[in-house]
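Homework help thread (please don't just give me the answer)

Our assignment gives two proteins as sequence + structure token strings and asks us to describe the second one. The first is just a warm-up. Here they are:
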Amino acid sequence: MSEVILNGDMTRRYPALRQAGRYALKRLGESRSPAEIAQAASVSRRSLCTLARESLGMELMEAIGQDQAAQAKRLSEITEQPIAGICHDPAVQFRNLWQFRRAFHRSYGRSPTHYRQEVAKRRPPTHCDRHEENPSNGTSPSRESQSVPALAEEIGRNQSRADAHCKR
């Protein structure tokens, strides 16, 4: 809600909604009630909930849950923190893992664990990833898993060795 409000057209039309969004964004990881948010925006709880429903198309607390899920999504992309750790991170702070998983799934159509796995598959390998040994058998990665530059480098080394061997 807060990011949608602060970046959307509704801020010009509904100043109370903008104030509520700012308040919720500052306290995203804290537990707060619709009444507390409404008080910070200087409107009644009922008015704020109606504004949110009409302008955002969702309930106030659902919008806040989406903001928490968005923050959790960012953390899962940039950190190696366990999913349970993200759930209780000060920037996210869901009450429990079930609530976190439900809000994340509603927002992104998959569980936090599946989302992280998809991100890991899309992430290009780092230089260190290409040169690590295979932990299962202690060997270097197979040619299929090597990148084109790494294969070209290996072919060049092998050609140099062959040339040196032929000159002897």
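The one we have to describe:
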Amino acid sequence: MSEENAEKEQKGSGKSTNILLIILIVLLVLGLGGGGAAVFFMMQKGGAEEKPAEVVEPAPAKPIFYPLSPFVLSLTGDRRARYMQIELSIKIKSELSRDTLADYSPMIRHRFIEILSGLPYVDVIQPEAPDQIRERALKSLMDLFEEEGVKDSGVDDIMITNLVIQ
């Protein structure tokens, strides 16, 4: 009987060994599959990093403005006294341009007063008047720098930052 029990134990342990072996093979296959997938995804990520980076344009520099103190000017027109208060800021390319504008500031103010004084009231209240004033002021400023022999004033544009008409 002991021989029969020994044979039963051998047969029973063979089944458990087979099941254990199958489980080990399944785990090995899953582990290899997972490892292969990890390597695949790592290679893809690494490959993307090796590609030449897209050329990113640098962000445009922040604009620099040179504000002028407000102008209060009389307007011509009907019998009432009419006034215009205007504040201008000059858009410049660099801080060096700020020094040029500071050096010529009295001449700039004089030019602007010349072109803005005596404007007809009916012209100033038109919707397109701010653009026309800005264009005239910019042309006058460029003419001033040309007359004075300033090669690169660094002026980009003129902005009207406040406009009041009474």
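TA reply:
I won't write it for you, but here's a hint about the kind of observation we're looking for: The beta strands are 64-67, 71-75, 82-92, 155-165.
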